[in-house]
Amino acid sequence: MQPALPEILPLLRNVTIFGGLTDETIRHIVEQCTVISFKAREVVIQEGAPGKEIYIVLKGRVKVVLGMDTDHPLEVTEFGPGNCLGEVSLIGILTHSASVMALEDTEVLVISKQLLMDIVKDDTNLFSLLILNIARELARRLYHTNEILLHYGSGKK
Questions:
Q1: By three-state DSSP, how is residue 1 classified?
Q2: Considering 56, 66, 94, 143, which has the largest number of Cβ atoms within 10 A of its Cβ?
């Protein structure tokens, strides 16, 4: 399904990986993406699967779960509209470290690995900015995780 840009552009302007991009550049990227819908409780990303896409939540909510298929799954966090998923696996050439499940009916914008490879060939400045934005988002998440670990670790001293 092709995204309806006028409806999602206000949301995409605030997506961290699109930071510093013009509306025209966002439009150019989105025109090459697809939108996928998931029903509540459907798996969006399977832990251990290769990373081939970046997902941006447009509507709905998802949860990140470690060990979803085990006896003791761990719910890590939830994401809603404007959040990105899968970027670590894609740029790190890794398998997904966790599963992602839709908590409610959800729509995601899918940025394929092939689209990123096309961008690197056609516009290295745009590619560099996208990768920098992804790195900034990952650094924010790592900082947040460190804060949580330090908080819980300080109680054990």
A1: coil
A2: 56
